[in-house]
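Sample intake sheet
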Amino acid sequence: MPDSAFYLPRVAYLFSRFPVVSQTFCDTEMLGLEAAGFHLAVASFNPPPNSFRHERLGRLRAEVIYPPPKPVLEQVLKSPPDDPVWRAMETLAADHSARYGPQFHPSQRARLAWWFAGELRRRGIRHVHIHFANRATLTALYLKEAGITFSFTAHAQDFMIDLGSDDLLREMIRGAAFTVAVSDFSRNLLVRICPDAEDRIHRVYNGIDAPQFPQASPSPDGRFKIVSVGRLIDFKGFPVLLEAVAGLKARGIGFELVIVGEGPQRPLLEEKIGALGLEDSVRLAGVRSQEEIKRELATASVFALACLTDGKGAMDILPTVILEAMACRLPVVSTTLAGVPEMVAHGVTGLLAVPQDARGMEAHLAALALDPALRGRLGAEGYRRVREIFALDRTVGHLGRLMRPWLKEEEAVPLPEGDLLCLLDTGTPADALLEKELRHLSALPSVTVMATRQGMAPAGCEYLPDATVIESHWRSRPDLVARVEALRAELGSLEGDAFYEAARRAVYLAVQLSIRGWRRIHALRASGAVIAWMLHRLTRLPVGVVIEAGHSESRTVLRNVVGVFTWGSNSDVRLETPLLPDLLKLRSGPLPPPWRRLWKFRQKPQPPVSAVSVWESWLRMASEAPAEPSGEGTSAGSAG
């Protein structure tokens, strides 16, 4: 868990969608920057396409920020703020619509930028970096109106095909603090498009942490195993690779080909495998995690990728998987396309064919199949080249030197002591007192109010992300899942659907605790009690709760959890809570007999108190309440 010396992130990575399984180079880069001392955040406009996550994302300390529900973003259109920054964004949106057309959705860019600008500035972030010249980089032009500078890494298909406008690309390059190209090939293309920014276009290779990859060793049975990795799309050239290995079979060379990846070309590849009679030799392995890919490479003899230019002109300029194979000391068979020769030196670290030359690929694979000594020599040279040119500390160091002038150290925001996470169920009926509480809490820098369900929440609240994100954390943390599932028997009558909904949110928030630095947890109303209780049991952090009289929660469940709460208020006279008096006086209407007489007898006279004064006393209690030592050795810090 961060201590008082920890500073909130000073640079954010901006994504259209995060995480994406194929963008491992982005994950590697961010992990490298964190290891170099940078404090990062991730801002993503959209949730991931599915719940799949590479294992190493668990090591990323950066907070991931997603936008609120669509109605929240659209509030700025219904009630435009009287703010010069918003007016500047609106003006830019109108200009972009006139010059580039509505297909770039300029109004949506402005809304996203307006919301994210507030979130980024609140976290002390004044610079963002983006991979790909896409709509995230376009949105960064709007963020610049809020005083947030940006830089971006251009790859290949993004600016060559997908963006579709050299004029817009020039505006991005000119507006950026600097632009990164991933190869000399792509840098030359960018300089030709925007020559006046040549001095701010830098080649920075995608780096790789070579020691994290296993050294490949031959199979004991002597089989020749070829591995290829990539999305099953045209420019990866998998049909050409299949024709090449069919040639190996015709030569009588035994082999196994494993293709790792998924995509729209799968039906075509399956058909081609059948037509070539390769069913016994080729395996389409589908999507695999980074660790699973390492295991495939560890038992391989050679790595092959038949890079080519597709019908739209798209291509792979610098495939990271080639570097990963070289880090495993594997020889590489690929093509002379784009930046591939910057990685693979022909005859030194691998063998290159002309794009779409299946016979050339076949000849190279055959030469390696018949000469183990050649495989070993090329693999060793490839590993040396990766360590000398593409080492992560080298590439990240270069990128860091470009970033540092744009990171304002004096604006770093210290993490407040005693951060409090307040849980708000947006399905809870609002009352005047709750509205006062939220106004008070949202104004405090050390308090985060988190809406635990999708739906409109008061201004100043944060929202849990899309269910896909929550599910990805659930699947990637079996240790926390096992512990929270073991709690179910203690809750009594909580139904399965309700339990797992709360449990998933609790696991997600437990992971966030170590990132955000929350040290105390409070359920603003009874509907948040179960999640708060689960978080306490997972992290041993102190918790509080407010139980209103008109709640709809199971009293059996509440009786089973309420004992862990060390501050709060209880207005439910049918629920015995000696430690939680009715400080907020949330009883609704007269008490029915015999509860009226019972409560009158037991209740001690209390002077009238305001929500603010009660909260001030609770915040003091929360800051003084020590976290309980965990008998299982798991704290909020280790939960993430």
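Comment: The chain has three domains: 11-204+394-411, 210-389, 420-639. The longest strand covers residues 11-17.
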